[in-house]
Each structure stands twice: as structure tokens, then as C-alpha cells.
């Protein structure tokens, strides 16, 4: 019998996007955590605030943003699953 990995749904809201500057800003929530992020996609830099719990969300959020970057629009709400219990 295989043990099922825990799952947490992360909710993303895109607040600002600038193709000229090569950046997307938004917020992400998962359970009781909430972060603000700024992704400079041309440079591959993802900054997340506050630092509490940042290590848990940075890699999965980065993968989500890279996979969906051209589909993300300001004001849009998105979600993805994290294989962890936050």
C-alpha cells in the first residue's frame, strides 16, 4: 500500500504585469500563509515576501509561473497544487 503525499492548493492572484520591464507581481495564498511575489521573468528572479514559509512556496510557485506565464493576466485568479502540507 503506497502512502499518499499530502497536497495543498495554492491560490495566485496577478496584480501587475509589465512585458516592457519583464515582470509580474502578485500574491499567493496557501492555507494560513500569504506572500507577495515579484517575478522578473527575463532575468529568472523570483522574490517573495515575507520570508516566513518562503522556502515552502518558492520552487512550486516558480514552476507554476514558468509554465503559465503567457496565460497570466492582471486581476486573474489561478491555483496550483503543492505536494506538501503547509
Give your account of this protein's structure.
This protein is of the alpha+beta class and 86 residues long. Helix content is 17%, strand content 44%. The protein has one helix spanning 54-68, and strands spanning 8-18, 23-30, 33-40, 45-49, 77-82. Strands 4-3-2-1-5 form a five-stranded antiparallel beta sheet, with helices on one face. The longest helix has 15 residues, at 54-68. The protein starts with 7 loop residues before the first strand and ends with a strand. 17% of the residues are buried. The model has no long low-confidence stretch (mean pLDDT 93).
In summary, what is this structure?
The protein has 86 residues and is an alpha+beta fold. Helices cover 17% and strands 44% of the residues.
Distance between the termini: 24 Å
Q: How large a portion of the residues is in β-strands, by DSSP E?
A: 35-45%
Mean pLDDT: 93
- What radius of gyration results from the CA coordinates? 13 Å
One letter per element, helices H and strands E, the order comes to EEEEHE
Q: Provide the helix percentage.
A: 10-25%
Unreliable spans? none
The main sheet comes to: 5 strands, antiparallel
Structural class: alpha+beta
Number of E strands: 5
Strand order of the largest sheet: 4-3-2-1-5
**Number of helix segments?**
1
Molecular shape: globular
